[in-house]
Amino acid sequence: MKIYWIKAQAPRRVLALVKHLRIDAELIEKDLIAGELKAADYAALNPNCKAPTLVDGERVLWESSAIMAYLCIRQGSDMWPAQSPDEQIEVLRWLSWNDCHWAEAVAPFYFEHVVKSTFGFGVPDTGSLQGEVERLAKFARVLDAHLADRRYIACGRLTIADFQLASMAAYWRESEMPLEPYAHIRRWLEDLMQIPAWADPWPSEDRPSAAVAAG
Ligand SMILES: N[C@@H](CCC(=O)N[C@@H](CS)C(=O)NCC(=O)O)C(=O)O
Question: Domain range for residue 147?
Answer without folding.
Answer: 85-197
